[in-house]
Structure formats: C-alpha cells, structure tokens
Amino acid sequence: MSDKQLQLGEDDAYLALQNAWERALEVLSEHVNKPSFESWIKTARPIAFEDGLVRISTTSRFAKHWIENKHVGLIQEILEEHMGCKIRVRVELVEGEEPVLLSETLPKKPKPQPKSDDEPISLPLNNQYNFENFVVGPTNRLAHACALAIAESPGKTYNPLFVYGGPGLGKTHLMHAIGQQAIISFPGMRVAYVSGEAFTYHYITALREHRTGEFRRKYRSIDLWLVDDIQFLIGKERTEEEFFHTYNAIYDMGKQIVLTSDRAPKDLQLDTRLLSRFECGMIADVAPPDLETRMAILQTKAEYENMSLSNDVILYIAKLITSNVRRLESALIQLHAYASLMKTSVTPTLAEEVLSKHFGEGADPVIDAQKVLLEVSKRFNVDMSDLKGKCRSADIVMPRQIAMYLCRELTDGSLPSIGKALGGRDHSTVLHACKKIEQKLEKDKSLAGTIAELEKLLRGGKS
Length: 463
Ligand code: ADP
Ligand code: MG
What we know:
Blueprint: H1 11-31, H2 34-41, E1 45-50, E2 53-58, H3 61-83, E3 88-93, H4 141-152, E4 161-164, H5 171-185, E5 191-195, H6 196-208, H7 212-219, E6 224-228, H8 237-252, E7 256-261, H9 272-280, E8 282-285, H10 291-304, H11 311-320, H12 325-341, H13 348-359, H14 369-380, H15 384-388, H16 394-410, H17 415-421, H18 427-443, H19 445-459
Parallel strand pairs: 2-3, 4-7, 4-8, 5-6, 6-7
Antiparallel strand pairs: 1-2
Helix pairs in contact: 1-3, 4-5, 6-7, 6-8, 10-11, 10-12, 11-13, 12-13, 14-16, 16-18, 17-18
The structure holds adenosine-5'-diphosphate and magnesium ion.
C-alpha cells in the first residue's frame, strides 16, 4: 500500500491504527482458517482514519463481502479497544489487485489488471496445501487416493468425487492439492475452486447486476470444478437451482467436479435430484486421524516450521488433541511461539503447561459473537446480514434475539460489544432480547431444546 493512500492526520494516529490493526490480525488469525486468512485478511489494509472512520481496503469483491459479513464487528471492536475511541469501519474495494485468476494460481506472476466485470470466479489456491505435505493414514486414505487419481486424470476416473467429514480434517487441503496438481500436469486447464459461500455470493451479485449471462458463461467454461463446503447451499433455493444447472452443464461436458461437505450426501437437505447426482460418483469420508497419523502430521508440520521437537512432546500433543488436525497445528504453533518468547526449550512439561487448558478435548473452545451468529444463522436459515440488519419480521427477530441471548450466555462480550456485533444495537436492546428469551424459555420447551442444542454445538467447538 503506498503512503499516498494514507490520509491520516497525525503520525501518532497512524501508528496507533497500525498497532491496532496488527492486533486485529492476530485475533482474526485464530478465528479464520489459514487460506482464507492469507487470502482475504492479510491482503486487506487500513488505508485511512478520519473522523472516527477507518477505511479498510481489500483487493477483491469477495474479500470485501466476506470481511463485511463475517468480521467487521470483531475488527471494529478490536480497533476501538486499542485506539481508545469510537470507530466505524468501512470496507472498500481497491480495483486491480485481484490475487488470482482461474488456473493462473501457480506460479505467482504479475497479472494484467482485471476489469471490474472480469472478476475471476476461482478463489485463490494456497500452495501450502499440496499432496506432498498431506499425511495419509487409515482415516483419509480413500479420499487421498481419489484426490490424487483425479489430479492425474481429471474427468476420467471418479466423477464427481464427494468428500465429507468433520471440521479440520483436510477436506480443503485436498481440494487445493487437486487444483494445483492439475494445473501443473495440465497447463492451461481451467481450474475453479469455489466455496458454497462464494458460489452463492457470485450468483446473487450476478442477479443483482443483471449479469447472469456472464456468470453462466464463466461457470460453463470450467474444466475442473472444486466446490468446497457445499452445505452452505442448504436453504438457498434459487442458488441451489442455479447450482443444479451449473453442475449439469459442467458434468455433461465431461468435466471433473469435486465437492466437499461437512456431512454425507444423504444427510444434506438439498434437492434429491442433486443428491442422486452426487451419489453417482465416488463418495469418500475423512475421519479424525489415529494416533500414529497425528504424530506424523505433527512431525511434518514441525519440520516445515523448522521446530525441533522431541518424540515425548509429539506424543503428548498427539494424545491431547484427537479429533481435529487444525487444532493439532495451532497447538504446535502456540507452543513454539511460547517457547521462543520465553527463550526456553520445548519439553513435555512445558507442553502440558501451555496446552492442557485450551487444547484438551474437554477444554472449552473460545466462543465469540461471530461463531454464535454463524450457528444461529445456519440453524434458522437466516442470513448473517439479516441477523445484524433492521428487518422486524418475526422469523428474523426471534433468531436475532436468540443470538443475543447466546452471546450473553456463552461469550465474554459486554452488552455493548454484543450489540455492536449484532449490527450496532445498543446495550438496552441486548438486555431486552435476553429477558425476552429468558421469559420464553420458561414456557416453551421446544425453544429450550433448540437453544440447548445450539449451546452444545457451540461448546463442542463445531462450526
Ligand atoms: P477441513 O476443510 O476438513 O475443515 P482443512 O483442509 O482446512 O480442513 O485442514 C485444516 C488444517 O489441517 C490445514 O492446515 C491442513 O493443512 C491440515 N491438515 C488436515 N489434514 C491433514 C493431513 N492429513 N496432513 C497434513 N495436514 C493436514
Ligand atoms: Mg474446509
């Protein structure tokens, strides 16, 4: 970002903003998965601070949409806390720095500036997610083998490939690996990696801007379509319909499709026509790795990070964290950071000291307002933007109040910070909502059941 773009009045304010932004990055890096963090958040910059307004620049429309919808509340809260004043945040698009185009992911090279109507549909591929550093074990062997076969001959073996399983078990990693390997083996192949969320966003934007023709043309030119987290389409009827047609068009041309989801096709509440198509191909699940695989993953990761770890330490971590590779990795990174900060070596005792509280499978996951909003939006099929918005219709007001109630129950956030996370409401609104839900809970058993389920889900750390 050039200095010209900074319009900060004083150096001090700029420094304060920079520091606060760095803090926000730290916090967000803990909440957001790595490729998304690297692609969308690290590339964003605070570019100006005037009259309480912080302007954040992003380089793609998707990044702008994604930060606005998911993270702006948290960013605002952290900036306020660190700058000690009230702040509004505006996310802006700076054209011309789109990180990746379809199949131009590798190698990184300077790109011509895309026109605004030439926005690519593929999300960036993270070159750290490749086949070389994917550790294979009994619980992901099938998914890995299918992924590799597809990368070597797209459209010729299993089509579609449907990979499902819980969070943090390598689904996204495999998708990126397939995409990159295919680009290397078949230069010029048009690879598009999208999430269910990105597809929805592209479609809605195309509808709004009367550009569905262009949308369809782009999607129908794909050779290898990687669709991550397809469960996002549940309940979005028009998008699902469009997805169905896109799917058929790509499939009928003999092109390869790979899908992932947090659940098996039979458990996805999507159109049965779509489900039967998924079931025509190969279905592979990924499950939590066994102890040996967890140890191998830790070893690989430690080598990659240049950390030397004794077998005792590796064994300790592998026994402590059993169900999620992402958590395994973050434990390692935190331990490493702690040891370097304290200038001490990593022993099993240190590992226990640093990790047991937060990483034990029984430990409470950190719950924040964003997680609550996400679960509530999924449970009630209401967009996050509606939960934060002004609409007063009953089917939105109720989930919104439940979200406030759950934030109050499960997060450390103050009433004002909860209000802020819900679209800038004041603390009395939050209090009112909590009281309302408490009253209802006394009489309404089914509501009590729903809320208990949500609490369990959030406490269990699944999302
Ligand atoms: P999912 O998409 O299933 O939620 P990800 O693919 O995002 O999970 O994986 C979470 C993290 O764990 C990533 O950093 C990924 O590289 C790592 N990971 C998962 N499985 C493996 C594996 N078998 N070998 C190496 N790293 C893995
Ligand atoms: Mg994923």
